[in-house]
Each structure stands twice: as C-alpha cells, then as structure tokens.
Amino acid sequence: MQIIEESQFNRWWKDPAVSRIDPVTEGAVRTIIDAVRDRGDRALKDYAAQFDRSSPDRLEVPPELPEAAWESLCREEPELAAALDLAASHIGGFAELQKRQLTDFETEIAGGLFTGQRVIPVERAAVYVPAGRFPLFSSVLMGMIPAFIAGVDGVILASPPMEGGLPHRHILAAAWLSLQRAAGSAPPGKRLRIFAMGGAQAIAALALGTETVPRVNVIAGPGNKYVSAAKRILSGEVGIDLIAGPTDVLVIAGDSAGNAVERIAADMLAQAEHDPDARARALVPHRGMAEEIVRALERQLAALPRESRDSAGASLEAGGLIIIYESKKGALRMANTIAPEHLELQVAGAEEWIGGLRNFGSLFIGDLAAEVLGDYSAGINHTLPTLGSARFTGGLSVRHFLKTPTTLRCLRAAGYEEALRAAEIIGRAEGLAAHAGSAAIRREGRGDFP
Predict the structure, then answer these.
(1) In total, how many domains does the chain have?
(2) Which residues contact 373 (CB under 8 A, 6 or more apart)?
(3) 342 tagged catalytic
C-alpha cells in the first residue's frame, strides 16, 4: 500500500487507457474470432476443450433447466434465493424508472416541420456472465433484467460450462428469476435462451452467429481481458455496452477516525478481493488517517479466508494507494482525473461535494452507502465504466437495449419552406448538387401529390 501527497499526484498519475490494448491478447483474440467465423460451433467446442472446464456436446441449455435450478435453490438455499429475489425486485424497479426517461415524441419544431423520436428495443440481446474464480450470478440479474424491461424479444445468456457441461447452477437460477421478475410468465424458449460457452469465442459466436448460436444486436456484461478484447474488436459488427477493465474504487474520506477508518478499509478490501488487478484507493485529509487505514487494512486482511486474502493482498501491494489531499478543491480535481468506477463520499456534508464531481461510474453518498449495495441489492447496475472511461460514459442500463431513431413529417407551411430553402443553400455550398435539387423540386412544388 502506497501513501503519497497531493503534490506527487501529477507525477504518479498516468492515463490508464494506454493499458487497454495488449497486442498479445488482441492477436490471440483475433485468431479466435477468425476461427469462430470460419468454423462456427466446431470452433466453440474446440476452444471449450482448451480453455473451459468441459466441452459440452450440446451448446444450448435445455429450456427446462433454469426453472429447475431456481426451484432447487429455493429448497436448498432459501436465504440466498430470497436475497436474489429482493435484488431482482430493486433492479427491475430501477430499470423501469430508467425506461420512462426515454419516450416517443413528436413536436412541431417549426411551422410544417414535425420532428420526432421513437424508442424501440433491439430484437435480440445477449448477456455474458463469467464464471472464473467466482461465478458472478449477480451479473445475470444486472444484465438480463434491464434487457427484459427494455422489451427485447429474445435475450440470450452465455456463460462458460462447468464440469458437467452446463453453466453454474446459480447462474441458471438467476436467469430464471430474471425472466420471471421482468417478463412475467413468458415461456423460457421464447424470450430466454442459454448457451454454455465462455471467453472470446462466446463473444464471437454472439456477434457473428453460428449454426447453433443466433446472431444478436447487442452484447452486454463483464469479462476478462480476452472477453473485453473481443467486444472491442467486434464493436461495429455488434453493439456493446462498454469495455470493462479491472474494477476499482476511490473513497474520499473526511476528517474523522475510528469506525470511519474501519469502514473505509472494509470497502477498499471488498474491491481488492476481486483480483490482483483491482484497484482500491482513498483520498484522505492527513497522514494520520492514511496510516490508520493501512493498519485497519492489515487487520481486516488477516481475517479474510485464504483465497480472498491472497487476491486482496496482491491487489493492495500492486496498486493500493492513499493520497493525502490539501483541500476540498484538490480532492475534487484528483477524483475527476481518476474517474473511478465506484466513488464513495465518506465525508461530513457529502451533499456539498456532489456538484464538483463529474467523472464516476456510480456515486455512493455518505457513510451508509456501501459500494457492495451497488454490487448486489440496491437496484443500481454494477456493470460500470473502468480505466477512466467514466469521463465519457455511464454504466449498463436499460438504454443499452433501446434504440432512439428519429422521424420527420412535413406539411406545407412557413417553417417547412424556410427549411427547404436552407437545405438547398447548404447542399449547393457543399458542392452536393443532387442534395440541392432534392430540396428545390419540393420547394417549387414539382412532384407533389395531386
């Protein structure tokens, strides 16, 4: 864990976007994409045998299994089932509110010019859910529920096969819960299909289509560097949500101690345990607090189970950072420069800081707003921009599954005539004579319906 002063920040900081493209990874992924493009299902099965825990004979999961997985979860782990159900309810409610912000409209912007917008769900979307060290079944809810709420006709879940040739049973259960929570009693074969496939090859199959896997319009969901590279390369052939890199958190702390220090350390560790590349950082007002946080991190780290302890310890050693800020203005500047995925405001008068913060994936306001609530159960999405991309985008939401094409309807009136004349002038000035002619023929009334 490193501690630096605000005066050292500019020397320490470098744009993490430069690490987005790894030529070795990208080369390997391009080979995988070409293989899937050429050999379809055969390539998927070959790569599953090479990279996954099994290579299933049948890529598509039988439609009755998700419901069976959910019923089994309710019987065997009722507390977890109830927690997932609560989370699904909140995620669905939040997605419904987001959808209401995007509406069809038409307005007469000038006499005779009626401009409009339609909100149309994509026909088919896919959600990718990794299952490496930790099967992220919460990501099923975060991806599939907004897609269903958006009104997507067909939602596909892709997740790597486990030893039995199927995705993790909790991932299957969460898929069924997502369908029931957001799409009522729609038959699973109609709106939900699940494929046991993982990695860059799964992204390629979803983007390009194979004999078995249908081509989708949008792919959402997190993944490792190979999945991220495949999404980046195939973007354009398919829509994507965002390119997710290693996860990160930045905690802005106020001038306090005691329990606040323990909370800050706990939240930093919660992020660091994802993997050694995760980044846990804090901005604090003085060195005394920085040193207290380091001691709290050491205490809490020692109490973690071995797997989490090893991962979190490696993360903190590689990139854990505490920066001592000199003023509120300085803290805001550094936070906006870092543009964290998760930004926690653990300061007195947190509301007074909000207006100065522009770049973050999700903002957690006040001591009670633990980032882990955003990860799981509060309703906001946990698929968020990383590596500083919060400077230009937000996280996964219902809007990623919606299109907003525009419409134009015209009547002869003063505003319409003015717009025609302007279009003719601009077209001629740009040297596009046919554009000018298209406007002129209407302005002169030629070609009108009788």
Answers:
(1) 3
(2) 364
(3) yes
